[in-house]
Design brief:
Blueprint (H helix, E strand, L loop, with lengths): L12 H11 L16 H10 L3 H9 L8 H34 L5 E2 L3 H8 L10 E4 L5 H10 L3 E2 L10 H4 L2 E6 L4 E6 L12 H6 L2 E2 L8 E2 L2 H14 L5 H10 L6 H10 L3 H15 L8 H4 L2 H9 L1 H5 L11 H13 L3 H9 L6 H6 L10 H18 L1
Helix pairs in contact: 3-4, 9-10, 9-11, 9-12, 10-12, 12-14
Length: about 400
């Protein structure tokens, strides 16, 4: 098979420059032609869209005076300093939440936040976070809700559910503290279902302790981080380069690549992981561990990697509603392409499981909710007919 070369010729010139900044440790290695004629407003917009201002601030300061407009450096410097203060605040909150949960016998894994930044970059100021993501056992969710409510947090997500489908269709709930202005995402799964993934207690056995805080704070093991960070980035189309920079830094860690590969195969994450590792390899000139190369050098993974350029080229933002219809349709196709055939079958079968919409269309007593299974095709057809009629 020919050596794969990612085609990014259609991405903006400003993004090419950003990629070169991320790729090279010293700006003297960058061809000056890459930053001639840069639209600095577009550059700033892309830097903030991809959440890269902490990573790029030090690089921009390396340039000779006059190459980068001083107002650009000053603007990015301001947000770099704000992010540093935010990460210090988040570090304190992380430690406080870990202490609270430990005292109440709730095991807790930090998925992202400053502890992840400290692990990957050795510096909490070099990674942004708008919230803190924790993973807890599903059976502890009711107790978690009570504890956070007592601490002044308010639940923002009230999931509509029928027949307990929330346990596998969704994967987290959001809490917000209005006085501290802190947002928490409490996960009971790594990703939304239906999908096979390691359970909490399995992940807990492989946890690692963060060296950031005095009170013990635990992260996913490094092999599990490969699974989580690649599946998370792929689920969002790698629409922010920051996620690929995380993969770049994770590749520098001491990882048992054979164990990581076996995990990916077991939990059917070969395509998302292969896509992320191939994108990071192509954009940043990296070489993943030898054990991972068979997952990367396949035609489906190469196709998926090229597919992701759509998100970079168009500066796609999947977090702000409404997502344009064309983008939403492309993303649905992208997510389906990431699945292996068993996952596709399970995903299609999941549409036969009742939704909360069915209960709203035809309210039934809880004791009769089982009837939504045979009624679902008729209720779905009724809703579609009404939608077309109006």
């Amino acid at each position: 098979m020919k050596q794969f070369k990612l085609d990014i010729s259609d991405v903006p010139k400003e993004l090419h420059f950003i990629i070169e900044l991320l790729k090279n440790d010293h700006v003297a290695e960058i061809d000056p032609l890459l930053y001639q004629g840069i639209d600095w407003k577009v550059f700033i917009k892309l830097v903030f869209h991809h959440r890269l201002y902490p990573n790029l601030y030090a690089k921009l300061k390396q340039f000779d005076c006059g190459v980068i407009p001083p107002e650009v450096v000053d603007y990015i410097s301001l947000y770099y300093k704000r992010n540093t203060l935010q990460m210090l605040k988040f570090s304190a909150v992380t430690e406080a939440i870990s202490r609270l949960f430990t005292e109440n016998r709730i095991s807790l894994l930090l998925l992202k936040g400053p502890a992840l930044g400290h692990l990957l970059y050795g510096d909490i100021s070099l990674r942004t976070s708008s919230d803190l993501d924790f993973l807890v056992p599903l059976e502890k969710m009711e107790k978690v809700d009570r504890l956070l409510t007592e601490q002044g947090y308010q639940k923002h997500d009230y999931i509509k559910t029928v027949l307990n489908d929330w346990k596998w269709r969704h994967h987290h709930v959001t809490y917000y503290h209005p006085e501290q202005q802190i947002k928490l995402e409490i996960h009971w799964r790594l990703n939304p279902g239906p999908a096979k993934e390691p359970g909490f207690h399995e992940l807990w056995k492989r946890k690692i302790r963060s060296s950031l805080t005095h009170f013990p704070v635990y992260l996913l093991g490094k092999e599990d981080l490969i699974l989580f960070l690649t599946s998370h980035g792929a689920r969002h189309g790698w629409s922010r380069l920051r996620w690929l920079v995380d993969i770049k830094e994770l590749l520098k860690q001491d990882i048992d690549w054979k164990k990581a590969r076996n995990n990916l195969i077991r939990y059917r994450c070969k395509k998302p992981a292969g896509q992320g590792l191939l994108l990071a390899s192509c954009l940043f000139n990296l070489r993943p561990g030898h054990a991972m190369r068979p997952l990367i050098h396949t035609r489906p993974v190469m196709h998926l990697a090229q597919h992701a350029v759509f998100y970079l080229k168009n500066m796609i933002n999947l977090h702000t509603e409404p997502v344009p219809e064309e983008t939403a349709n492309f993303h649905k196709h992208h997510l389906f392409s990431l699945m292996e055939w068993r996952q596709k079958c399970l995903f299609l079968l999941s549409f036969l499981y009742p939704y909360s919409d069915d209960a709203e269309t035809l309210p039934l007593p809880k004791s009769l909710h089982i009837l939504y299974f045979p009624l679902r095709p008729f209720l779905w057809t009724y809703r579609k007919t009404r939608k077309i009629a109006f």
